[in-house]
Each structure stands twice: as structure tokens, then as C-alpha cells.
Amino acid sequence: MRIDSEGVHYRELNDRVHAALRGGAREIILDSVRGQRYIGAGLNGRARLVINGVPGNDLAAFMNGANITVNGNAQDGVGNTMNAGTVVIHGDAGDVLGYSMRGGTIFVRGNAGYRTGIHMKEFENCRPVVVVGGKTMDYLGEYMAGGILMVLGLGSKDSSPVTNYVGTGMHGGSIYVRGRVESHQLGQEVGVEKVGDPTWLEIQSILSDYSRALGLEGLEFRRDEFIRLIPKTTRPYGQLYAY
Fold it and tell me: What is the fold of 92-241?
């Protein structure tokens, strides 16, 4: 099913999407999307949305299992408190990508903005994964409590793919960076280690899914290109609030 989104208010557009799904549609193509907010918010089940254009803030917020493909860029807040499902973005993403994300997967072909993956968390078998193909801006993984963040730095061989304050307040999860990272770029709460054999197997599996989803199967990655960032403690600010 196709929906022409040109000039359609975001509330009406989202009403049309939900009505189509209630009517039995399993794949919906949204053409001419121009910043409409909340697309895919709270979707359940195995529905598939294909977005041609640029969706607005909070794409896939609180989503519970749908599959969204964006043929273009996405604005801020993609995957806000997302629980399950997959979002594949063939362009760039804005700020607070994966904010408080609790499960599911987000793959971005290009760059992402500030505060990617902040407050990400995991519980039992629910573990969110965010992979950014290009670069990210400041405060990557701020207050991160769980899940996996990965920054590949594709096309940025001569510079670090991350900027400053990486992992500030981090107390869970893992951040994998392909490329150079200097100590002054890291939050005080972050430790650095090499990627071991079991971890590399997991990374390879995620990279395989990423490459397949974005049509990048020809890419090759080496273990020695990556570093792993982990929290030094599970209570980085414990002494500030308790004695």
C-alpha cells in the first residue's frame, strides 16, 4: 500500500498508517515525507514501513517490533525508548539517536548527531544495538547503562569518527569504535580494551547484518581496527549522592 504524504499533517498521516495496519496491510510505502513526526511510534507486530523522504522527530518512538526503512535522512530522536524492531536509515540521523532505547536495532548508513545512544539500557534478553556508519558528535553513549553502540568511521580514515565526552557517565554496555580515539575524547568513567575473540564474533555478526541491510556486502572489517570502550564502574557517581 502507498500513501502520498505531501502536505499531510503528521497526525493525519499517522492515523492513515494505523488505519491501514488495522485493515490488514503489512507493508506501507510513504512517499514525499517532509518532516512529519512520530511515524511508527508505538507500532506493534511485524509491519513494514518504507519511508521515501525525511521523517521528523521521534521516528519509531516506543516501537515494539515493526521494520522501518528510510530512503533518506532522519531527524532527531529516532528510536526514542524503542523496545523492539528494526530501523534502517540510508542517510544521516540527527541528535539523540536511540535515546533510552531498550531493545531492537538501528542501522545508519551515514553520520549521527549529538548524544547518540544516551541512557540506552538492557534487561535479560532485551539488548539494543545501534550502528552508525560514519561519525558521531559529542556525548556518544552518555549515561549508557546497556546495549551496544558501534561507530564505523566509514570515509574518515584521517580523523577520529567520534568527538568529545564519549561515554560520560557510562555504567553499562559496550561502545565499539573503528578508528583512532584519543584519551582526551573519553569521559572519565570509560575504560579502553582490545577486542577479544568472543567479542569479535559478536561484532562480525552485527556487521554482517548491517552490511546486508544497507546493501554494503563488499565491505571488509578487521578486528585490529576496533577498540572497545567499557564502563570502569557500575556506579560512577555513587559518592556524589550517597555516603
Answer: Pectate Lyase C-like (2.160.20)
Would you say 91 and 111 are in contact if contact means Cβ atoms under 8 Å apart?
A: no
Q: Where are the domains of the chain?
A: 92-241
Q: What pTM was estimated for this model as a whole?
A: 0.95
- Find out whether 110 and 92 touch, Cβ atoms under 8 Å: yes
CA distances from 140 to 70, 148, 171, 206 (A): 22, 12, 13, 19
Please give the Cα distance from 44 to 104 (Å, whole number): 12
Chunked mean pLDDT (size 10), the chain, 243 residues: 96 96 95 98 92 98 96 98 97 98 98 98 93 98 97 88 96 96 94 93 96 92 95 80 58
d(CA 173, CA 80): 18
